[in-house]
Amino acid sequence: MSATDIQNMPAETPWLRYGLVGLIAVALLWSAFSLYMIGQALFGAILLGLAACFVVIFGSERFYGSRFIFPGIAAVVIFIAFPVIYTIWIGFTNYSSFNLLTYERAVEVLTSRGTVDQSTEQPFAVALDGEGYRIWLPESGLLSEPVSLAEEATAALVPAAAPDTLLERRDAIRLREGLGLLTLQTPDGAEIRNAGLRTFASVVPDYVQTGPDELTRRDGTVLTANHATGFFESAAAEQVPPGWRVAIGFDNFERIFTSEGIRGPTLSIFAWTFAFAGLSVLFCFSVGLLLAVILQWEHLRFKPVYRVLLILPYAVPSFISILVFKGLFNQNFGEINLILGTLFGIQPNWFTDATLARVMVVIVNVWLGYPYMMLLAMGFLQAVPEDHKKAAALEGASALRVFFTITLPQIIPPFLPLLIAAFAFNFNNLVLIFLLTRGLPDIPGTVIPAGQTDILASFTYRLAFDNAGQQFGLAGAITLLIFLVVAAISYANFVAMRRAAARRSGVS
Q1: What is the reported pLDDT for 66?
Q2: Where would you find the membrane-spanning parts of this chain (predicted)?
Q3: For position 2, what pLDDT does the model report?
Q4: Contact 276, 359 (CB under 8 A)
Q5: I want to staple 105 with a disulfide (CB 3.0 to 4.6 A). Which of 101, 380, 498, 505 is the partner?
Q6: Which residue(s) pair with 155 in the sheet?
Q7: What is the C-alpha to C-alpha distance for residues 447 and 474, in angstroms, rounded to an integer?
Q8: Which are the contacts of 50, defined by CB distance < 8 A and separation ≥ 6?
Q9: Region at 193 (left for phi over 0; alpha for psi -120 to 50; beta for the rest)
Q10: For position 95, what pLDDT does the model report?
Q11: What is the per-residue burial (b if ≥16 Cβ within 10 Å, else e) of 52-85?
Q12: Which helix (H) or strand (E) is 144 found in, with range?
């Protein structure tokens, strides 16, 4: 039952409404508690807050009006506000593939590491014992107590004869996960663990916790937890991964603007992103408007056929067109280079030359975007009064002058908000870059993955997900910068729409 059904229940049956509100609240609370138990406290807190708001709004007549907007607000909080805030928060942390864990989990991982003492290795076999198993060590003639191999356990070894129910090696291998949880204790007090598919041996821990923020390595080196960097460090400043997540303030932003290996490619990509978005909008608008003007020519025959053919790129899914163009621009086997080589004897390096790669990206984006602009232009051109154009023609104005002095000024105001929106879309056009070039060719001399055709969106994606280091914090900082730019563009779009509306109302 939806929230709308609950709020529309008759007033004569309040107990039914309260019962449904209570059931939904209990389900939400149980879900929040489950998230907390699996370590997702933040998500649990958000769900707990939504549950409290749900009970207050739907359980009281005082907030009756809020029931209609609560589902929308909840969706905005969960799917828009929270991801934005969380991403921004990541930008102020050291979150990366080396700093994925919490402090407690990092200590647990380090102290669980061990080195096998090869001098103690000995083969083993597994024997059935009712519903459990026993581990048989033939070299020392020791047999373990019955174990289930379903959870971590310690079993004592005692001298015994070889059991009659030994499993085949392939059947024992199937139990390797449970064997890894088992610790065997020899009669002299030594502990041995599973050291492979065929042996048990003593495992010497690599790190031992010797203090609240201190680990001692097997070679005697003392490591101290540095909560400013999120790593255990030695006296020589050696950092031992894995680390843990910590807040580092504006360090990621400082790296963006001060590190030459980051600042150089970031500024280059930032400038190219603006150029890419601007050129795409300019050429899409120009080509679309030109084709719309041609299709408006009254003497043109077969207009419906031309319209259908010119709109086809808009009807085909963009990812299919991108992949087709990727094959057409192939440097060795593509049809474009085949034609250019036959006619002019040249075969451009579309994917390895930085300038040509950027030209190719713009060409493909114009092909994908011009039909939308053409459709808009065809509608706006029909709104231009014919009387104005006829009067200018009677005064001796050429068709080109009529277009630039009468037609274009009248269609630009309604076009402007759409052009700004198209600029914002192309500013984050990750799909095109990812499918066509993946940002390549790479920019030389960088300390982060950065390509000549990368825009900020693809650059951030590669930092976060397509890189051995996976620098989520740095990607989050760049995402915040992108958010600010797109917010400014959106505000400019709002202002342009408001001014256009005011201008139209003033004219009317």
Answers
A1: 87
A2: 15-35, 41-59, 68-92, 269-293, 305-325, 359-381, 402-425, 472-494
A3: 56
A4: no
A5: 101
A6: 184
A7: 12
A8: 28, 74, 77, 78
A9: beta
A10: 93
A11: ebbbebbbeeeeeeebeebeeebeeeeeeeeeee
A12: strand 142-144
Closest CA to 153 of 162, 161, 144: 144
Write out residues in the chain with pLDDT < 50, as ranges. 11-12
Q: Cα separations (Å) of 282 from 272, 286, 288? A: 15, 6, 10
d(CA 358, CA 363): 9
Residue 338: what are its φ and ψ, rounded to 5°? -65, -45
Residue 109 pLDDT: 93
Position 494 scores a pLDDT of 79
pLDDT of residue 7: 54
Q: Give the type of residue at 96.
A: S
CB 423 within 8 A of CB 283: no
Task: Kindly calculate the radius of gyration of the chain based on its CA atoms and give it in whole angstroms.
Answer: 34
* Residue 390: per-residue pLDDT: 82
Is the pTM higher than 0.85? no
Residue linked to tokens 């019962």: 19
pLDDT at 14: 73
3-class secondary-structure state, position 168: coil
Tell me how far apart the alpha carbons of residues 197 and 363 are, in angstroms, rounded to a whole number.
57
From the centroid of its chain, how far is CA 279? 26
CA distance 350 to 327: 11
State the DSSP code for 190.
-
Identify whether the C-beta of residue 377 lies closer than 8 Å to the C-beta of residue 288: yes
Cβ count within 10 A of residue 191: 11
Lookup result for tokens 């002019």: 344
Rounded to an integer, what distance in angstroms lies between the CA atom of residue 16 and that of residue 67?
A: 17
Q: How far apart are CA 176 and CA 167, in angstroms?
A: 13
Check if the beta carbon of residue 470 is closer than 8 Å to that of residue 97: yes
Backbone angles phi, psi at 162, to 5 degrees: -65, 130
State CA 98 to chain mean position distance: 18
> Which pLDDT score, from 0 to 100, does residue 36 have?
87
Which CA distances in Å does 20 have to 13, 56, 74, 85, 152?
A: 11, 13, 19, 32, 43
SS3 content of the chain, % helix, strand, coil (to 5): 60, 15, 30
Predicted local distance difference test score (pLDDT) of residue 395: 81
Task: Name every residue whose Cβ is closer than 8 Å to that of residue 413 and which is 6 or more positions away in sequence.
Answer: 500, 503, 504
Structure tokens at 69: 């907007």
Q: What is the pLDDT of residue 261?
A: 84
381 membership: H or E segment, kind and range: helix 354-382
Q: How far apart are CA 411 and CA 396, in angstroms?
A: 22
Please name each of the domains of the chain with its CATH number: 3-90 (1.20.58.370), 103-109+207-249 (no CATH), 114-205 (2.40.430.10), 257-503 (1.10.3720.10)
pLDDT at 467: 63
pLDDT of residue 245: 94
At residue 450, φ and ψ (nearest 5 deg) are -150, 135
